[in-house]
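input
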Amino acid sequence: MTADELFEDKHKEQLQSTQKWVKNTCQSSSTVAILVAGVVFAAAYQPPWGFEKGRPVLIKNPLYSFFTVMDVAGLACSLTSVAIFLSILTTPLEFKDFRGNIPWGLWIGFVFLFFSVISTMLSFTSTILLLVQMKMKTASLTYAAALLPVCVFALIQFPLYFSYFVDGILDPLEMNLLGNWEALEIEDDQET
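output
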């Protein structure tokens, strides 16, 4: 029996629970990403203040340009995350897949899902600001309320992404850089 076979034999239950978790996570994340895609797709065809002679009424307003860019970014990011999560769901989820493909795929899928939610919130915020700007000139409380969901979501999610970036990317990168001679040191355990 090889070391790999022994490892796989001793960790069958862990593999099964991990496979179940990955499938549930990918299905849930795909559902959220599809909902975001549906919302931003619908918003693209219903711009603030509607259309006049086939063109959006607020097309010359810079906030409308921001709305359009965030809407397209939200759609692109959400559809990309759906594709990533579906590709993970179609893999066999064996031990070898968990050595790099699955963790990186999940991380990239979550990043695209995060950016799709953020860009959707920013699109919503720009719509609120467009509507308020057209109706009243001073509405700082409404502006703050429109930006609140973006700030709260970013504050909640930032520590997760920061810790993953530092622990999962920077630390291994630092360990494998050419200038790290400590990692190459050979310790002599023999006492002479």
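quick obs: The mean pLDDT is 80.
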